[in-house]
Amino acid sequence: MKKHAVSLCLILGCAILVSSGCAKNEMVKKDEPVVPAATAAVKQPSKPESAKEQIAKAEAAKGQAVKKVMEKSNELQPIPNAGELKAALEKIYFDFDSANLSQEARDILAKNAELMKNEKAIKVQIEGNCDERGSEEYNLALGEKRAKAAEKYLVTMGVAADRISTISYGKEKPADTGHDGAAWAKNRRDEFVITSK
């Protein structure tokens, strides 16, 4: 008895699916617009283009494509003297647990500011770093304070703020992997990296 009921349900289900599938197909066919053959034909231009006109259009399109490629390549060209500038932008160093700029750091920042003002096309990222002592969170915050202190000073020296970005690496990027006072002094620093033209 159960087998007959299951078979009957399966047959009924299949019949419903088939009939609903057919109904949808008919509805789609009814909704499709009927386009007369005359309007469906592709419109021909009223006057065929001459060979000169076709060549001129092709040259114009080629010229536009070349112009776009040249503009893109100009954006991506390396800064001609980036190596010299990178070497010229000096690091500054900080005292233990401090983001205050020493007089030596201010003098170096003044030189860096002059270089940046002379090279108006460059942008610089200031990377704040710390020594290995202290927690990771504390050093990230301290590195950020150090980078921001240098940024603020450069802006007061006349460098546009939109040309400077900052990042803190905390103790992630030591300049010296030693575990003594000399190594720690080298690691408490801001570095200046040219990011773009």
Automatic annotation (TrEMBL):
Location of the protein in the cell: Cell outer membrane
One BP term from GO: cell division
Keyword annotations from UniProtKB, A to Z: Cell cycle, Cell division, Cell outer membrane, Lipoprotein, Membrane, Palmitate, Signal
SUPFAM superfamilies, A to Z: OmpA-like
Gene Ontology CC terms: cell outer membrane
Alphabetized Gene3D superfamilies for the sequence: OmpA-like domain
Keyword check for Transmembrane: no
Annotated signal peptide: 1-23
Pfam families: OmpA
Keyword Ribosomal protein: no
Domain OmpA-like: 81-197
Membrane topology field: Lipid-anchor
CDD domains xref list: OmpA_C-like
Source organism, top-level taxon: Bacteria
Family to which the UniProt record says this protein belongs: Belongs to the Pal lipoprotein family.
PANTHER family cross-referenced by the UniProt entry: LIPOPROTEIN YIAD-RELATED (PTHR30329:SF21), STATOR ELEMENT OF FLAGELLAR MOTOR COMPLEX (PTHR30329)
Protein name listed in UniProt: Peptidoglycan-associated lipoprotein
Organism for this UniProt entry: Geoanaerobacter pelophilus
Encoding gene per record: pal
